């Protein structure tokens, strides 16, 4: 399969995932770009995402990065689940901020994959860094 066909298939797979992903829909995630092993998504932070300190709950930022991870590691139609993930929070996020999560594939193995996800705000400042390792089940999504 050529790169254009592979990227078109990856977009179709992610579109199918998003239709069933009620949590990403609740977050109001917008898919910006999908290529094999890659995703770029964004969302606008809302007041109901605040924690008790008046900043966006870390779980919201984590969830955005996790969705980017899922879209990148599953878009070859090989059902992949998180095996190990970690996140480093670099900067607080506030309501009204637009967060962008970009997932880049560092390793695409037969049974595992490694992805680096960079979360930035509307000013290009890094808010978080997420690293995810997935396990590939060998089952098709579609």
Kindly list the characteristics that best describe this protein.
single chain; 142 residues; alpha+beta; Thiol Ester Dehydrase, Chain A; 6-stranded antiparallel β-sheet; 3 helices; 6 strands; 38% strand; globular
Q: Examine the coordinates and then state which fold CATH places here, giving the name of the CATH topology.
A: Thiol Ester Dehydrase, Chain A
Total beta strands: 6
What is the count of distinct domains? 1
| CATH level 4 superfamily | Hotdog Thioesterase
Helix count from the secondary structure assignment: 3
Low-confidence stretches: none
The CATH C-level class name: Alpha Beta
Ends distance:
17 Å
Helix content: 25-40%
Overall geometry = globular
CATH architecture type: Roll
Radius of gyration: 15 Å
Arrangement of strands in the largest sheet: 1-2-4-5-6-3
Secondary structure layout plus pairing:
Blueprint: H1 3-20, H2 22-26, E1 30-35, E2 38-44, H3 58-74, E3 80-89, E4 98-108, E5 112-120, E6 126-136
Antiparallel strand pairs: 1-2, 2-4, 3-6, 4-5, 5-6
Quick summary:
The chain is α+β, with helices and mostly antiparallel strands and 142 residues long. It contains three helices and six strands.
